[in-house]
């Protein structure tokens, strides 16, 4: 009926498009945060794994042995534990950012803003609060990661792996962490745009609901 058509039409609006983009950005933030966390497995004799791992890290490399192997494992585990709270916090934030637009899409599909236009103003306020909160959250995320990379654990781990010819264990932000920061900035801009669209839709709904009274 007309109600079903109206619900489907919402998914073709600019506000729905922004909310779907927000869902995608939240999923990507979750993925990048999980990559940043890494593995808790610690050092493994990579040559013994064979195949792609053996050739990626150099077929001629004989691996750590004895006390060096134990020290590499300890440093890997300590480094993982240092990054774990940051990655978990980022994943929790990403999960919340994923649920939020999904709830708003469902609410709009159920025509709640049409029956209660004030909901759009509440939605606008929530978007602005989240967008503003994203700035200190990103600062905390990047600052905490840099603190981990500047720690003595990371520096010793980097030197140990470099002494054996391994590359890729540098004490600096890697691609997934930089991507998470950029995605967070993009999400903040999407929230501000959605806030503006919510105000626009509020005015539209208010005008449409006033038309019968003018007749």
UniProtKB/TrEMBL annotation:
InterPro entries registered for this protein in UniProt: Marvel, MARVEL_domain_protein_3
Main location per the UniProt record: membrane
Transmembrane regions: 21-43, 86-107, 119-142, 178-199
Domain spans labelled MARVEL: 10-203
GO cellular component: membrane
Key words, A-Z: Membrane, Transmembrane, Transmembrane helix
Highest taxon in the source lineage: Eukaryota
Membrane topology according to the record: Multi-pass membrane protein
Record's subcellular location: Membrane
PANTHER family found in the cross-reference section: GEO08273P1-RELATED (PTHR34609:SF17)
Designated name of the protein: MALD3 protein
Organism encoding this protein: Pheucticus melanocephalus
């Amino acid at each position: 009926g007309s109600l079903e058509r109206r619900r489907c039409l919402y998914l073709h609006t600019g506000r729905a498009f922004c909310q779907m983009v927000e869902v995608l950005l939240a999923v990507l933030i979750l993925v990048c945060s999980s990559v940043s966390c890494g593995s808790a497995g610690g050092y493994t004799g990579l040559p013994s794994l064979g195949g792609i791992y053996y050739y990626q890290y150099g077929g001629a490399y004989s691996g750590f042995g004895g006390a060096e192997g134990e020290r590499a494992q300890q440093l890997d585990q300590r480094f993982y534990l240092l990054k774990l709270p940051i990655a978990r916090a980022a994943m929790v934030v990403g999960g919340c950012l994923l649920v939020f637009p999904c709830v708003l899409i469902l609410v709009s599909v159920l025509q709640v803003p049409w029956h209660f236009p004030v909901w759009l103003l509440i939605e606008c306020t929530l978007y602005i609060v989240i967008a503003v909160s994203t700035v200190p959250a990103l600062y905390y995320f990047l600052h905490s990661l840099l603190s981990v990379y500047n720690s003595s654990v990371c520096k010793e781990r980097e030197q140990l792996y470099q002494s054996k010819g391994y590359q890729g264990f540098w004490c600096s932000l890697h691609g997934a962490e930089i991507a998470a920061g950029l995605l967070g900035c993009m999400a903040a801009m999407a929230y501000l745009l959605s806030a503006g669209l919510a105000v626009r839709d509020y005015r539209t709904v208010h005008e449409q609901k006033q038309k019968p009274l003018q007749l």
